[in-house]
Amino acid sequence: GVRGRANTPPMTPEIALALGLAAGAQFRDGAHRHRVIIGKDTRLSSYMIEQAITAGFLSAGIDVFLLGPIPTPAVGMLVKSLRADAGVMISASHNGFEDNGIKFFGRDGYKLSDEVEAAIERRIEAPQRAAPRDIGRAKRIDDGVGRYIEAAKATFPRAQALDGLKVVVDCANGAAYRTAPTVLWELGADVVPLGVEPDGANINDAVGSTAPQACAEAVVREGADLGLALDGDADRIIVIDEAGRIVDGDQIMCLIAERWRAANLLRGDALVATVMSNLGLERRLDELGIRLLRAKVGDRYVVEAMRRGGFNLGGEQSGHIVLSDHATTGDGLIAGLQVLAALAEEQRPASEVLSRFHPLPQLLRNVRYAPGASPLDADPVRAAIAEGEARLDGVGRVLIRKSGTEPLIRVMAEGEDEALVDAVVADICAAVEAAA
Predict the structure, then answer these.
(1) Where is 248: in which H helix or E strand?
(2) Which of 67, 63, 62 is nearest to 50 (CA)?
(3) Which residues is 322 bridged to in the sheet?
(4) N-term to C-term CA, the chain
(5) Cα torsion through 372, 375, 376, 380, rounded to 10
(6) What sign results for the dihedral spanned by CA atoms 7, 10, 11, 12?
(7) Is it true that the peptide bond before 10 is cis, omega within 30 degrees of 0?
(8) Residue/partner pairs of 176-179 with CB below 8 Å, 24 or more apart
(9) Which of 46, 91, 93, 209 is catalytic?
(10) Which of 199, 309, 351, 359 is 20 to 30 A off residue 137, Cα-Cα?
(11) Alpha-carbon distance 233 to 236, whole Å?
């Protein structure tokens, strides 16, 4: 997809229009009337981008169904439900309102491959416009949110109603501000909503999965059984236990993997995570006879690995949880329902249900570098990384990677000795800073 600062290249109306025109040509095959669905989050610029990319699709001869504010996973679901040729989500996910992005989905409901995205980029240079009679039509549809609400509810075991459970749900003033509270309430929960008053500029602002303290405080204040903190487009989740403690994606994935394995629902007896997931998770799954397969960071790479291997559970430590029996991408709400199903069935506090393994000390630091610099190619940096790997050999690991969206080097280490982990990260960061 594309992401950047709103009203600044590449997130301008002009580029959005060109992308819509190019994508329309890419998705147009066969003689049938083609349609694309477009969803968005609640940031101010989403309305501007929506209008521009819609114009591009119409110019390409593609009909457009406008869903309005709706979670990213709903777009993946509705592409198939509405027999659309493609889907678009306008969102910068967990970023602040100043940013925005465009994500594309194929007719199968999955995010596009790198190859198809590259093909769309090439088409920008040679736009193919429709004849006047063939220009597309646009209309807003009103039942997209309702369809998604019912689909989300259908993933929850009806025998395990949420009656008696008090749940704080923080919607980050984002795309799930209508859907998540409704689903939880209709399933029987006593719902305390947070972040459900979007104004175009407050998405992810001190609320949501990137600022879970607001949800944690509300859980303690309200005496709730659980807190669910979503991000701006609701494709990721952070869970809060009854004591206000934050639970990351690794513990959530472990809980679901254990329950699905016991119910013979875990295909391939495997969980697909990323290189960031804690070694403690890997060791716990190994004890249970469940394989942990690691993909590159990014939910799309997790999904690709899941599809290649025929697995139905994957995700990221950051809270993208992919349950492919129910969704084509990360879905924070549906993952949260799996946690709530465990609470309803086991009748134990969330702090007990969600404590599946003891995580090893893990430290992640970001080092910013000058545009155009290549600090990872510097000999002192390579030497520092090699030394860190040697010091943690057999008792931990080192992971170094460049951010895909910012000029940052992410330095992560984990191991049994917290002081050693701190020292290794500090030494590598110092070397990167000197070369940056």
Answers:
(1) none
(2) 67
(3) 314
(4) 28
(5) 150
(6) positive
(7) yes
(8) 176/71, 176/230, 176/234, 176/332, 176/333, 177/42, 177/69, 178/69, 178/145, 179/70, 179/71, 179/74, 179/145, 179/148, 179/149, 179/152, 179/234, 179/333
(9) 93
(10) 199
(11) 8
Closest CA to 231 of 109, 359, 93, 347: 93
Q: pLDDT for 151-181, tens place per residue?
A: 999 999 876 789 999 999 999 999 999 999 9
pLDDT at 404 over 90: no
CA distance 102 to 19: 9
The pTM (predicted TM-score) of the whole model is 0.90
Nearest CA to 179 among 350, 3, 42?
42
Q: What is the Cα–Cα distance from 199 to 44, expressed in whole angstroms?
A: 8
- The pLDDT score that the predictor gives to residue 413 is 96
Q: pLDDT (tens digit, 9 = 90+) per residue, 290-302?
A: 999 999 988 889 9
- Residue matched to tokens 């860190």: 388
Residue 351: active-site member: no
